[in-house]
Fold this sequence. Notes:
mainly alpha
Amino acid sequence: MNIEQFTDKPEIILTGDRATGPLHLGHYIGSLKQRVALQSVHDQTILVADMQGLTDNAHNPSKVSSNILNVVADYLAVGIDPIKTTICLQSQLPALAELTMYYSNLVTIARLERNPTVKSEIQNKGFERSIPAGFLTYPISQAADISAFNATLVPVGDDQLPMLEQTNEIVRKVNSLAGKTVLNECRPLLSKASRLPSTDGKNKMSKTMGNAINLGSSEKEISVAVKSMYTDPNHLKIEDSGCVEGNVVFTYLDAFHSDKNYVGQLKEHYQRGGLGDGTTKKILEECLQDMLRPIRERRAEYLNDKAQLVDILAKGSQVSREKTEKVLFDVKDIFGLNIL
Length: 340
């Protein structure tokens, strides 16, 4: 499902990010631009997921706490309006943890271990059998987040589709216990943008792998990142024909350059020979510098007024606390726990 299919119909949208580092170009093209477009039409909440950030960072909690306001500043810098979009902090919503506990009784360990996203992350992080319990139960926590807002639409990458499938399994079990529909099943909203590769072309862009261009990157950091980008290793001379598939520079030009016809001409020139990697990288750098400069400047302004960021989080969390407590009451009722 894409954005054009539903923009005239109000939806309840929940999205968010773990507070484990500043946001980068992958977040921008994959999700943040969508959130800005959605906020004028839909009931949108963005959750800063600090508790989920601890599932693999409990040994270094400052990595999470020190990045909460960085993430909020990134949101505001790209154009997310706290008047139109509710921005809240996961740890300030007690209903989420309580719902996670109730839902955990409806899910088996075997089902959690079969989740393809969890299996992949366990392998990538090298946990083997030393898996933090909080990390293994991440899908249950995510189900609590989504259902606590009764979200109908969740913007995700395709790697997160198994998480939404598991969320809907839990929702159906809760509704079955109730004998009626209490919680909404959610639908995914996939970005039209392909997943942005890292600058080295080996992985997807990641906060933890250090292969990303952050939204707050300095001019020098952007320049260094672009100059190091993976291109066609067989394009040894300018006059050689080059390959644009898998060439990170052209992937980024496709994603971020405003003149698609011009990018198409560059591709044709590169493929027939006579266009050097240095030239294409210079074009990309100018594009990214122009795009990120105002974002970086706004971000710095917001971080200079951290009291404002805290206030935005506090107000959004209060609104969200009231919403989630209502859903918690309904779920507790299903389990027969509203006796006091």
